[in-house]
Amino acid sequence: MKKIPFTLLFLGSLFYASAQKKSTDQKVDSVLRMMTLTEKIGQLNQYSGGDDDTGPTTKDGDKHNQIKKGMVGSLLNVTGAKATRALQEIAMQSRMKIPLLFGQDVIHGYRTTFPIPLAEAASWDLPAIERSARIAATEASAAGIHWTFAPMVDIARDPRWGRIMEGAGEDPYLGSLIAAARVKGFQGNGLGNTNAVMACVKHFAAYGAAVGGRDYNSVDMSLRQLHEIYLPPFKAAAEAGAATFMNSFNDLNGTPATGNKYLQRNILKGEWKFSGFVVSDWGSIGEMLNHGNVRDSADAAFTALTAGSDMDMESRCYKNNLATLVKDKKIKIELIDDAVKRILRKKFEMGLFDDPYKFCNEQRENEQRNNIQNLLAAKIMAEKSIVLLKNENNILPLSKNIKTIACIGPLIKAVRENLGFWSFQWQDDTVKIVTVWEGIKNKVSAGTNMLYAKGCGIKDSSRAGFAEAIAAAVKADVVVMNVGEAGDMSGEAKSRSNIGLPGVQEELVKAIIATGKPVVVMISAGRPLIFNYTADNAPAIIYNWWLGTQAGNAVADVLFGDYNPSAKLPVSFPRTEGQIPVYYNHFNTGRPAANDSDVNYVSAYTDLLNSPKYPFGYGLSYTNFAYSNISLDKNIMAATEKISATITITNTGNFAGEETVQLYIRDMVGSVIRPVKELKGFQKVFLQKGESKNVSFTFSTADLRFYNDQLQYNYEPGNFKIFIGGNSVDVKEKEFILK
Ligand code: NOJ
C-alpha cells in the first residue's frame, strides 16, 4: 500500500503545526473555524465499515466517496491495521484532513478472548479486571482501533435479558467499581498513548431494565430507582475519566434514551460535567420513529441533537437533515459546534491530528497475536471467574491419577463456543482456543484413560447419544460433564423466556447421575441458567460461564486443584423464570415472609420459595472459611465520625484459599424505605490452611447516603445494621446508631 508522507499530508493544513503550542481547546476552535457546515455534520456521522455488521445493515455503496468529502467522522467494524490504514488514507484526501475514529465492540478481549464480562465480575478482582481491559486495549489499538464500545455498565436483574452477559450483574456498588476498573484498563495511562483506546460507557441509561427481559424493550422506573440502582456505575465510569458514552435503544419513562434531555444534558453533561461525546446506539436516532416520539427523520435528528446525542451511529438522520434544520433556523449552529468540538477534542487528545496512522502498525499487531503474556493473563482471569456452586463430600478437586475419566456433554470438545458472544477471534484462526477436553488431557497423568461421549447436541431434542454416554460413564471412575448454552445464546438480541439448560441436556445429566458414578457437572453459559435437577442431584457443580481462549486450561486447573476456586456470583440465580426478577437488595414490604415456607398472608408465592436458588455473593472454595467475633469500634456514631467493623475469618479446611469478605448495610428506618441489604464493601483475603485473619471495614456517612423523595442524596440519623459474611445470606450482624 502506498504510504503518504506526513509532510505532504499536512501541507494543506499548516494551521495544525502553528496550533502545536495552543491548548487542545484552541486547536479544536482553529479547526472548527475552517469547517463548512457539511464537514461539521460529517464529524457527527458514523458508519459501519461492514467487516461484520453488528446491527441491521444499511446498503450504502458511497461510503468512500463520503469519507473523501469529509462527510464521515468515524467508522465502526473495520478490522486490522491494514484496513484501518487504507480508510484513513481516504480521509486524508479530504479537504480538512480530519482523521477518522475507528470504533469496535472490544467487549472481553480482542485477539486473546477473556471471560465474558459477567464472568469476570464474578472474580470481584478489580486489578485483574483492569488488566483484562488493558490487554484488550493493547491488542485492539495495535490493530488500528481507537475506541471500544465498552464497558457496558447496565445493572441487570433479569437473566432472560441476553445482554446480562456483557455487564457486571445486579449490584450498583460492585458494578461501579468494576465500571471504573474497566475504564482505567481501556484508557491506560491516558489517551494519546498508542496502547490506549477510548472507553465508551453504555447504554445510557437503564437498558438493563427492559420490561420482561426482552431486548430493546421499554423501561419504566421511578427516578429514585434510576438514581440509586441504575446510574451509579455510569457516574463512576464518568469519574474514572471515560472519554465517551453511548445512549441506549430503550425508552425511559416514555422518552427514548437517545432523545432524552434529562439523561444526556441535565445529568451527564450538566450535573456530572462530562466533557466527552455521546454516540447513539446503532440506528437509535432513526428508531425514535418507531418509538413514536418524533414525526419524521428530521424531527428525530432535531430531538436527538437537542437532547445531547453528539454522534449518529448508522441512522443517517444527522447527515440527511441537520443542514436543512440549521438553514431553517430550527437548530442553532452552536449546538452542532458543541457536538463537533467534543469529537474533535478526542481526536486531538488521541494524537490523531499529529499522526492519523499511529494506531495502524502491522508489526505491533502481529506481536500481539498469540502473545504468551496475554494468554497467561487470560488463563488467570478465567480461573478467577469460575464459580464452585456445589461440592458434596469434597469430590473435587479430582486426582490427576484417576484411572478412567469419562468426559461427557456437548460442550466438552466445543471450540468457538468458549468465546461466547462479542468475540473477534473467529477472524484469526492462528489464535488457539483451548477446549475443556484438551485442558483435561494436558492435566491428567499419562496412565489416565479418557473416554468421550457427546451425549446430545446443545439445542437438539435427540436422545440417540445417551446410550453411548451412559456406557462411557459406567466404565469410568469419575464423570466430568460440560453442558450449557451455545456461545451465541446470550448477547444482543438473545433474550430467552425459558432459561433452562437448552435441549435435552438436563435429561442427559439425569441419565448420567443415575449410573451412580461420581459426577461433576460444569455449566457454561452467558447468564444465570435454571437447572434445578442438576442443582439438587449432582454432587459437584462448577459454573464456567464463557471463559475465552484459555477456557480448557483454566477449567482443568480448577478440576484438579491447581487453582482453588474463589469466585462469587455477581447476580442472584432464580429458581424458576416465574421468580424473576429476584435480587438481594430488595425492599422488605409491609408483609415480609418470616422464612421460605411462610405463605400466610405474606409477600410470597404459594408454589415457590422466595429465596433464589443461589444468592448474590455466593461461591464455594475447596476449603472452608469460618466467620467469628464480629465487632464495631463504637455503637453510636456521630455524623462527623467514621465507624469500623471487624471480623475474624479462619481457614478451617484442608487447602489454602482466597475468600471475598462482603460487608452489607441496612438502614432500618428511612424517610423512604431502604433495601434489606446493600453491599458497601468487600475485601479479598488469602488464608493458609488453619490461618486466621482479622478483616476490618471503615465507613462514614458518605456510605450511608441515599436518594430521598426529593432526589436529594443524603444520610439520615437512626438505626443501622451491618452484616459481614461470605455471601449475601450467610452473615454475622451488628447494630449501630447514627446520631
Ligand atoms: C448495538 C449495541 O447495542 C451496542 O452495544 C454496540 O456497541 C453497537 N450495536 C455497535 O456494535
Secondary structure blueprint with pairings:
Elements: H1 6-9, H2 15-18, H3 24-33, H4 37-43, E1 45-48, H5 63-68, E2 74-76, H6 81-91, E3 101-104, H7 117-121, H8 126-142, E4 147-148, H9 172-187, E5 200-204, H10 223-230, H11 232-239, E6 244-247, E7 251-252, E8 255-256, H12 261-271, E9 277-279, H13 288-291, H14 297-307, E10 312-313, H15 317-327, H16 333-349, H17 362-367, H18 372-385, E11 387-391, E12 404-408, H19 436-443, E13 449-453, H20 466-475, E14 478-484, H21 505-513, E15 519-524, H22 532-537, E16 540-543, H23 551-559, E17 625-632, E18 636-637, E19 643-651, E20 657-667, E21 678-687, E22 692-699, E23 706-707, E24 713-714, E25 718-725, E26 731-738
Parallel strand pairs: 1-2, 1-10, 2-3, 3-4, 5-6, 6-9, 12-13, 12-14, 14-15, 15-16, 18-26
Antiparallel strand pairs: 7-8, 11-16, 17-19, 19-22, 20-21, 20-25, 23-24, 25-26
Helix pairs in contact: 3-16, 4-15, 8-9, 8-18, 9-11, 14-15, 18-23, 19-23
The structure holds 1-deoxynojirimycin.
Folded structure, characterized:
Helix content is 29%, strand content 18%. It is an alpha/beta fold and 739 residues long. The chain has a six-stranded mixed beta sheet, with helices on both faces. The longest helix is centred in the N-terminal third of the chain and has 17 residues, at 126-142. The site of 1-deoxynojirimycin has 9 residues, from loops.
